[in-house]
């Protein structure tokens, strides 16, 4: 049966609110929580945003069972040897709950603004491939014993890659345990599945969740107003409708859902979604 992750961008929220939401997700049946990785909030640079690895570490310290990851860490932000050490440390500190999500960088203007890179998309994907190869060496699973860092991972650290370009999909097939399909392409999942090798497929899905007692039309209209630009990446409805919707996604090949809430995930929404969607969910067997 598919897994459920709460996608929780760490923008516009206090750190205590991120912890509170993550704890609510853990108590409500979510398997994991994922953050984003930017130096400024996408499309709203005036809004404060917290650093991605630090937030994951802090949430790990305040939770017990929920897995932690990112959609996705930007390869350009971290030198590979340092990233390898960070990942091993967080995986150990969290009791094996950390997953390493990586991408080549989705906002070139951000990279240039902070003097990180002016490379084009092809060069950035090539650099990500070099990072992935280096990680195998640092973690003791590659072909360079002289490059192994100590300690090596106590258990394999799952790698998740996002993206749909041909070069990225080759990296997915070679290195990834998980592959994530961006929200705007959720309706194309079957197109990409043959290219991801043994990786498991996840989808990023914005949800306009109509909670009990709420006006359906109002909630759906607000969701469309805020996130209609996501196209098929926005789904709306009450619990029963969402169970059917996610069941169809699983039937089509999704093995994990990164759920992103149009109301910015207040605790009550997380709890009700867990009680009325996740716990009764029957997946493609329904």
TrEMBL record:
Pfam families for the chain: Bac_luciferase
The entry's keywords: Flavoprotein, FMN, Monooxygenase, Oxidoreductase
Record flagged with keyword DNA damage: no
Flavoprotein as UniProt keyword: yes
Superkingdom, natural source: Bacteria
Gene Ontology MF term list: alkanesulfonate monooxygenase activity
Coiled-coil segments: none
Protein name: NADP oxidoreductase
Residue span(s) of domain Luciferase-like: 14-199
GO BP term, example: alkanesulfonate catabolic process
């Amino acid at each position: 049966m598919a897994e459920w992750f709460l996608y929780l961008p760490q923008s516009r929220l206090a750190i205590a609110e991120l912890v509170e939401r993550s704890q609510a997700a853990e108590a409500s049946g979510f398997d994991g929580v994922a953050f984003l990785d930017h130096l400024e909030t996408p499309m709203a640079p005036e809004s404060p945003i917290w650093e991605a690895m630090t937030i994951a570490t802090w949430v790990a310290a305040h939770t017990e069972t929920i897995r932690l990851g990112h959609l996705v860490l930007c390869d350009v932000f971290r030198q590979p040897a340092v990233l390898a050490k960070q990942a091993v440390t967080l995986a150990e500190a969290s009791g094996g709950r950390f997953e390493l999500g990586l991408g080549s960088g989705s906002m070139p203007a951000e990279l240039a603004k902070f003097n990180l890179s002016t490379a084009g998309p092809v060069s950035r994907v090539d650099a990500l491939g070099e990072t992935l190869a280096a990680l195998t060496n640092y973690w003791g699973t590659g072909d360079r014993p002289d490059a192994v860092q100590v300690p090596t991972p106590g258990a394999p650290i799952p790698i998740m890659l996002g993206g749909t370009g041909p070069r990225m999909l080759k990296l997915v097939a070679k290195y990834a345990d998980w592959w994530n399909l961006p929200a705007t392409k959720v309706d194309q999942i079957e197109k990409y599945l043959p290219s991801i090798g043994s990786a498991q497929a996840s989808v990023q899905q914005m949800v306009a969740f109509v909670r009990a007692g709420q006006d359906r039309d109002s909630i759906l209209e607000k969701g469309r107003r805020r996130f209609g630009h996501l196209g098929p990446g926005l789904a709306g409805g009450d619990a029963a409708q969402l169970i059917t919707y996610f069941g169809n996604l699983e039937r089509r090949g999704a093995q994990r859902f990164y759920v992103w809430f149009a109301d910015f995930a207040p605790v009550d929404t997380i709890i009700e979604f867990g009680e009325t969607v996740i716990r009764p969910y029957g997946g493609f067997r329904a």
